[in-house]
């Protein structure tokens, strides 16, 4: 498997950015980390701007993209490109990097948004083993990354990723552009739109929308594990026990409803058998199964490297989901982590890349019109057979069955979509959408 960025075939290093692995507003002690994107130094211009995306800070823009406006021929969708004034774009330094910009400078937001979006695409193009075209490429060559402070949301659509912010905390403005999870989650939606596409029918199944949210969460989760500081912090704080409350299992898609989801959850699909109202909630059984698969593969790698013994792994499986899990297992993790912290780090990185590769290969097999959570399971089983001969089949099937996936299906949508729903994002992809 290929893990991006990879410069082994080039003497030119990638363009460097400073990115916050955790939002400085959610984690006051968070420090920006130096990362390299796959674009060689000197290839990213002011903005920043590159061959696939460009960032800008519009002046006096009040209408968000995707809104319906009055056009020459009647109502039409408001889409890029913005042709008004913009704040002075941040310039690269003499080496072509963007690591010299002060975080207090408005230009840092644009650089951070660009770097986060590009870095996420790099990671997942590595897992897919190919370039992922934009789902809107018939109309736009590049993704416009736009900052709109008046927008209490972050959303992606036909040719744009637009981030606003919130003033919910003491009237202090907190931009979503500095929240890597938020940006990576939106890029995750773009990846799914490109790889799987849209249902041919106007009313997609609940599992399609729930899958979209779960997949976007997994894109963000695994991308965040490409920050060395995140891996180190998660292991240091948990002592290797990923079922404790930690940075890795918590998602904050801060939109109009400030969505907060826990990957290490105990939701089952049976809870939605009579119907559902929020695709964010409906996504949780699938995301929970994926997180459990990640942890189980991680435990398998710990055993493979003799970091823990098979008896400890078996005990973890027996106690999983019980009230006694942490009381019994934490002491064992504390002891083994103290003896070999590097072994835990290697195992987590291996589990990260195994699951990333599995998901990319499985998503390639899915069809938007026939998408179901059980179909995701079957695709993962096929991938596992092709890669390992079925080494993780029991793990995959067991975790999906614990969530009642394959045993039931969600009922109908019970309420109309609200402002947090990504049904709105799907509408921005309508073929009849016109440029203003």
User: Could you give the order of strands across the largest sheet?
Assistant: 3-6-8-7
Distance between the termini: 43 Å
Class computed from helices, strands and strand pairing: alpha+beta
In DSSP terms, counting alpha (H) and pi (I) runs of 4 or more, how many helices? 12
Q: How is the biggest beta sheet arranged?
A: 4 strands, mixed
Q: Provide the gyration radius in Å.
A: 22 Å
Number of strands: 12
Which residues form runs of ≥5 with pLDDT under 50?
1-10, 253-259
Percent strand: 5-15%
Order of helices and strands: EEEEEHEEEEEHHHEEHHHHHHHH
Fraction of helical residues: 25-40%
Describe the structure.
With 436 residues, the protein is of the alpha+beta class. It contains 12 helices and 12 strands. Helix 8 packs across helix 9 and helix 9 packs across helix 10. The N terminus is likely disordered.
